[in-house]
Amino acid sequence: MRVYVCVKHVPDTAANIKVVGGSGFDESVKFIVNPYDEYAIGEASQLVKKEGGEVVIVTLGKASAMTTVRAALAIGGDRGILIKTDKQFVESDETALILKKAIEDDGGADMIFAGKQAADSEGMQTCYRLAANLGMPVATEVVGFSYAGGKVVVEREIGGGEREVIEMTAPCVVGATKGLNEVRYPKLPDIMKAKKKPVNEIDAGSLKVDAAGLVELVALEQVPERSNAKMLEGSVTEAVDTLVKLLRDEAKVLE
Amino acid sequence: MEIYTIVKALLMACLLSAGFRYFYIRVRKLVNIMQSVRGERKILPDRIGERVRVLVSDILGQSNVRRKKWPGIAHTFIFFGFLAVQPHSLELMVQGIFPHFSVAHMFPGFFTLYLTAADVLAFFVLMGLGYGLYRRLVVKPDYLTNGNDAKFIILFTSVIIITFHFYNAFHMVMPSDGFDYGACFSFSAILSSMFGLSDLSLSAKTFGLELSYWIHMLTIVGFMIYIPGSKHLHLLAGIPNVFYKPLDVEKPMIKTDIEDEDAETFGLSKVSEFDWKHVLDLYSCTECGRCEERCPANFTGKPLSPKEMIHEAKVELFEHAETLMAEDGDLETIPLLVGEEGARISKEALWSCTSCRGCEDICPVNIQHLDIILEARKFQVLMEADFPAELQDTFTNLENQSNPWGFSADTRANWCKDLDVPLMRDNPDADILYFVGCAGSYDDRGIKTSRAIVSILKKAGVNFAILGDEERCNGDMARRCGNEYLAQMMIQENVEVLNQYKPKKILTGCPHCFNTIKNEYPQFGADYEVVHHTDFILELLNQGRLKTSGKDFGKITFHDSCYLGRWNNIYDSPREVLSKVNYATKVVEMEKHGDNGMCCGAGGGRMFMEETIGKRINNERALEAMDTGADIVSAACPFCITMLSDGIKDSGRESKMEVRDLAEIVDEATL
Description:
A: Rossmann fold; 6 helices; B: 4 domains; 9 strands; 54% helix; 4% strand; elongated
């Protein structure tokens, strides 16, 4: 079977993001495989190991995302497709259309895995939109996966420590999250082999998808640095007075 | 009598030719094994003159053995006495076949001197063996392998020496052959008179002489054949192993060619991958257990014993010797050396090592345990991706942000935001490039030390600069955890930056940075003068660039960091610094200090692994520090500082002892 894993090239969550020019950021920071996508790669590899076939890594990103494609191939995967764009944040509507086109052009999927969300934009849209475009069933927040004879059974977290079990027919889209499997640290031979695996580079423009342009990135804002706690001195009345004053004048949450 | 002489000659000829032939076969096999292992290392060593001097001091001088006093003295006695009787035994062998051969008659003066000395020295062997027996039967230290092998060896040696004395004792009462044997003997003469040998009939004397002769000869030949298969093989292998020992204390780890596309495997996985020197190491071990006694992991109840590791590897090597030596031997049948149940060395043992190097340092025959341990870790990480789970985040953090905790790499210089510390990119001609290190940059405790170092540099008017966000982790932690790939990535990045600035001198605030940059970066093309802050501060004090205030800190004890001491031989300068700034009170020493210092438990990447087996090494070390009654325990390593601070807290003992980096003390003690 042919299994596609959609992988995003994202800045490391530990990196300090500096907003540059309104809606961009300093991209000299370290970029990594989107952490949730690592679980997707792991699950796809296991499935192909069992059922036979190939794992194809699909990435939509800047040319520099090649490092992420290679890193993903070291974790698991037989070949890659890098769809090049000049934007870090492509709206999920357009992303899903591009991924659909690329996957169909490549031969079509027997299964699609992805991380449940990207660690940078946190949109949580792509899995659903991709499945809708392809007319496939979809489940995200998946922590358990099994496949037998075209039937997929997933366990997904629904909050409060509860899980639900869903049965779907393949092909379908599975959005992986932490807990689905243990992310394996790549072995050196895998890293070396990954450097030589074929990666098909295509321009996003050449796929000619027609996105509706539903989402527009207007501005990025720096997360304010957490300030130190302030101890209010004096009697209760004094402390409350000071608090109200602070909330009004400094925090500006009171009118 | 004529017939006996002929029969004796024939028997001796048979005994010696068979004995030596068998001995040769056994030794030849050992050499074959050395040649059959697949690892490669060049055979011709460098600096031969120095190596010969090492042989003189370490083997003839027995200096290394005597680092443990009483067993060392006993060994020295046995060594010289056993050596002394050998020419005599050789003469007896020749005499057995050619009865008229006699060195005594050829060189009477020389022989008198020789035999006089040998008779005394031989008796010393018995004293040494007596001490050995006392240790094995009464003291029985845990670290000493106390098997039958050792007892056989003592028995063999005792019989050889006792029959030497008896032969002499009978020889001196035999009718004179023109050489005065009696004049040579002291202890044998006492033996002779004790048993009243001169009163025996000639035939009884002859019988006694011949009986001593035969027992002596048979034991010697038997022992000779026994040696290659026993731990006493150290007698043959120890000497070349000492000859090949690393001449410098500083020893870089082996650089693995990770780009080698033809390499089938990386690191060390099984005995077939050893090189000849590894095998010589195994042959040299005599199971004295000094390494085990020193090992901080063993001492705190972890399943690592350097001695057992060497022994197990040796057993495995012999078990698969035929496969190795056969031309079509299937190496696949040789199991992994480290692994799950059934493997000779457990993973827990492998990962317990702190790379403190206590074992290598104390080994009397210079076995290089870490050459095996660190290479075996490389295999586990690079080929199996099998390592303590908690290291995965550490590796990922190092890879992504170049520090083990995963703080953002661009905030590396935030610790000195308010200190006006110049960056190399703004001050490329600085006299000193201060390489701060991860702990010095990100760890709250480490930052205090870095700030003290900066303060000292400013007081002394040093023109210095740091790399700031251009600095990466030095690579020590990843390298010693077996992640050579990750280590080389970081090393390469640092090397490029360093080569761009070509610093006049690099100052480090951490022994791990110091060791790697000084001793291992040259492998990667960055060879600069590197100084650790203890030495640099001492230099500043000696040059009068720092004025001391005379502050009395009370009693200070100094904890030797392994990567400062045993890996780089820096023991004196920290003590000198402390005595210069705290001159009112002498530095007090812990029982284990200097080259016998005990690890804090953080080395070899252990800082970032859980310590779940046995007692905690840092707690034990903290107790030892507290036992000195010192007010301050000082160290010159951020990891030691953290480990000791935690150890004092966890020890459960009420203590006001402070843990302070040497730089912090100096900063406070100078104007």
